[in-house]
Amino acid sequence: VETVQMVFVVIGASMGALGLMILFVGCLATGATRTKVYRAWGARVGGRISCAVFLGITYVLQVAWLLMLCFLVIVTLIFTIFWALCSNPQVQANRQCIDFRQFSFMFPNNTRPEDMEVCDTHELKLFCKDYVERAEIMFILATVACLLVILSLVHYLMCLSANYAHIRDHEKFQELQDLQCLQEPELSMGGSKDRF
């Protein structure tokens, strides 16, 4: 259990660090900051490369989080079924056992049929209260959090791809704006507004 916890801590810390880097690149590649930071040719190339690298990383993370969501949905569904079994009034009154014999294909071949039933009051408390109820709440929260991460990654992919296009086409926009200022000198006298 300690190893699994350590793996989750490392994954969480890496996602946090990656989130900060993504925020930094996003701030540099957005709006007025983009026009100031990526003004020179070399800076634009570096900006395009960093945007492309983070687009690739974010895309891979998106696929990984989608796989995690699929896993969490399946596990949450299973624990919801278990929770419904535990919520049965007959089971709560200790008049009926929770029978897992219909799922015998999931157990090892040498499992006895009586081991596939949860009947004793202590076993029911252990299974329902201590295991299923706590795990169900955690899996529901994890599924909701996973959905939020996926939505934020999709949003970031959209923003970063738009910023990549703006950085790539900045020189064309600048030439177009200069050409427009040359053709309409009365607008250039009043001061140019950088719309891109």
From TrEMBL:
Q: Which domain of life is it from?
A: Eukaryota
* InterPro entries according to UniProt: Myelin_PLP (IPR001614)
Work out whether the entry's keyword set contains Transmembrane helix. yes
TM helices/strands, residue ranges: 6-29, 65-86, 137-158
> Pfam families attached here?
Myelin_PLP (PF01275)
Tell whether Cell division is among the UniProt keywords.
Answer: no
- Which keywords, in A-to-Z order, does the entry hold? Membrane, Transmembrane, Transmembrane helix
> What PANTHER family does this protein map onto?
M6, ISOFORM F (PTHR11683:SF12), MYELIN PROTEOLIPID (PTHR11683)
Recorded protein name is Neuronal membrane glycoprotein M6-b
Write down the species.
Answer: Timema podura (Walking stick)
